[in-house]
Amino acid sequence: KKKVVVLGSGPNRIGQGIEFDYSCVHGVLAAKECGYETIMINCNPETVSTDFDTADKLYFEPVFWEHIYDIIQHEKPEGVIVQLGGQTALKLAEKLSKYGIKILGTSFDALDLAEDRGRFSDLLTELKIPFPQFGIAESAEEASQLADTLDFPLLVRPSYVLGGQGMKIVINKQELEEHVIDLLKSIPGNKLLLDHYLDGAIEAEADAICDADGNVYIIGIMEHIEPCGVHSGDSNATLPPFNLGEFVMQQIKDHTNKIAVALKTVGLINIQFAIKDDIVYIIEANPRASRTVPFIAKAYGEPYVNYATKVMLGENKVTDFAFNPQLKGYAIKQPVFSFSKFPNVNKALGPEMKSTGESILFIDDLKDDQFYDLYARRKMYLTK
Which of 106, 161, 261, 342 is most buried, judging by how many CB atoms fall within 10 Å of its CB? Predict the structure, then answer.
């Protein structure tokens, strides 16, 4: 029997293991359907993927390279699925590729291209897709020089982090230098990305499945109620969008299709957009299962992770599936915060994620009082 290894999200930050766990479990079940012996590596006791009866074999081990390598040497699987366990699993793709272990789905080079801001921006330029002006700095001096050409406000973020860790919007040179020095102390040697922050922009995101032949199916487009700059995990978001015109929606669809194909995506991809003056800019692309995939799957009643896993395994093409999403009205993703348990935490929202989970609110139309309430409070905690 052919074996497949699925990497989990590890003991992730509170609330961030749950959505990825949904993807891991459905990935395991899809691989079983295709006749594979499934091997799960994860060590989060709060998640379903570590239940004894989910995968054929469970290795309750930290999702670290040394543990994974030993297991792979022992089990000799056909390949490893890294797309379903969030950033934790994705970070291991480089080592797997280096040691000649097959990554099922999107290749390491494509994953790295999306993470490497310089290469990714070159790709967007080639595709004629707009993105906010940016620069890369490795010291406070470099950051200060960049600020002269990029203009404030700036979004400062370290490379290869999860949940917006260390991200901040700065509005002058003093704030910029203080934040850069703090970041380089905590993450030495990290390349810092400085983006011109599109003040007052609307944020949206799209999730899609793409196969090796370049067939793309967009499973859902969501519009954030909060302004651009609040982390997507902390934003209330509507499925489908409630306030984007046909011209903007077409740009989102076109950009998603072009990027998914150009990155040679095999499986899932999430792309985040900033919309200003009817122009759709790309914030980032993640060729993996995002935290919104379980939300979209539940809202539309479709097993999208199951489909995507079969595409990764090479068992099916996107065109093989009869997609039939069912949703009356709108589904709203609402973040859940645990500020009452952490009274000293700053409640102001920004690019660094603070929510510990999420819930779904179904409404029939935009006249719903709960939607009015969410929309009225959308700017309450935004911080610069």
Answer: 106
- Residue matched to tokens 């409070």: 377
ω into 77 cis (within 30 of 0): no
Distance, CA of 350 to CA of 48 (rounded, Å)? 30
CA–CA gap between residue 114 and residue 109 (Å, rounded): 9
The tens digit of pLDDT for each residue in 241-263 reads: 999 999 999 999 999 999 999 99
What's the pLDDT at 17?
Answer: 62
Share of the chain above pLDDT 70, in %: 93
End-to-end CA distance of the chain: 55
Q: How far apart are CA 239 and CA 234, in angstroms?
A: 16
Amino acid letter, residue 174 = Q
User: Quick one: which of 242, 240, 250, 247 has its CA closest to 220?
Assistant: 240
Options 1.10.3720.10, 3.40.630.10, 3.30.470.20, 3.40.605.10; CATH of 202-376: 3.30.470.20
CB 133 within 8 A of CB 154: no
Kindly tell me if the per-residue pLDDT of 377 is higher than 80.
no
Report the side by side order of strands in the sheet with 154-158. 134-137, 192-196, 154-158, 168-170
What pLDDT is recorded for position 352?
A: 73
Do 19 and 101 contact (CB within 8 A), yes or no? Answer: no
Predicted TM-score of the model (pTM): 0.87
Q: Has residue 162 got a pLDDT over 60?
A: no
Structure-token pair, residue 93:
């793709």
Q: What is the DSSP letter of 382?
A: B
Cα within 13 Å of Cα(103), Cβ side: 25
Structure tokens at 326: 């069912």
Q: Do the strands 192-196 and 154-158 form a parallel or antiparallel pair, or are they unpaired?
A: antiparallel
CATH of domain 133-196: 3.30.1490.20
Please state the domain extents for the chain. Answer: 3-104, 133-196, 202-376
What are the CA-CA distances from residue 126 to residues 41, 73, 118, 129, 270 (Å)?
A: 38, 41, 13, 8, 20
How many Å apart are CA 384 and CA 376, to the nearest integer? 19
Structure tokens at 9: 């999200």
Token code pair at residue 383: 């911080």
Residue with token string 């759709």:
280
